[in-house]
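Key result, reporting period 2: structure in, sequence out.
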């Protein structure tokens, strides 16, 4: 998947603001070329009780879907942060995942970005995530 440095910074800024809770949002773009991100859209984490979960409301999904439509893009992915935890999908991430969508997980400690991984669900009888290489591109390449 391709993302610009500026977009990744937007995600890390959101993660830092939400720390120690998880942040979440949408990656709008195109599925072509192994996924290209064009826009980052923040969502509100509806999960109140725990800091290691995220939930996005159906209304925000609908809004993101409309924004994507207007821009002739698609929701190609969901991002969320893992405060003080590696960017590896949790059991809950696995249970909630949809096929074809990219899952970007940004690991953070307070204001500090640690690292980011992208995953995609494979379900050929055995449900698992496969690692998706992330390419940081220059804005001009979009
Ligand atoms: Zn997670």
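The corresponding designed sequence is given below.
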């Amino acid at each position: 998947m391709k993302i610009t440095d500026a977009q990744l910074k937007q995600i890390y800024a959101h993660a830092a603001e939400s720390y120690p809770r998880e942040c979440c949002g949408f990656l709008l773009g195109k599925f072509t070329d192994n996924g290209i991100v064009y826009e980052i859209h923040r969502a509100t984490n509806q999960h109140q009780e725990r800091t290691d979960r995220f939930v996005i409301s159906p209304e925000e999904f609908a809004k993101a879907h409309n924004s994507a439509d207007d821009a002739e893009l698609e929701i190609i992915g969901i991002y969320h942060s893992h405060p003080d935890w590696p960017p590896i999908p949790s059991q809950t991430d696995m249970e909630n995942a949809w096929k074809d969508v990219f899952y970007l997980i940004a690991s953070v400690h307070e204001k500090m970005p640690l690292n980011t991984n992208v995953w995609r669900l494979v379900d050929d009888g055995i449900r698992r995530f496969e690692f998706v290489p992330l390419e940081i591109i220059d804005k001009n390449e979009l």
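The longest strand covers residues 112-123. Strands lie at 2-4, 24-30, 36-43, 74-83, 102-109, 112-123, 127-132, 135-137. This case is discussed further under Risks and Mitigation.
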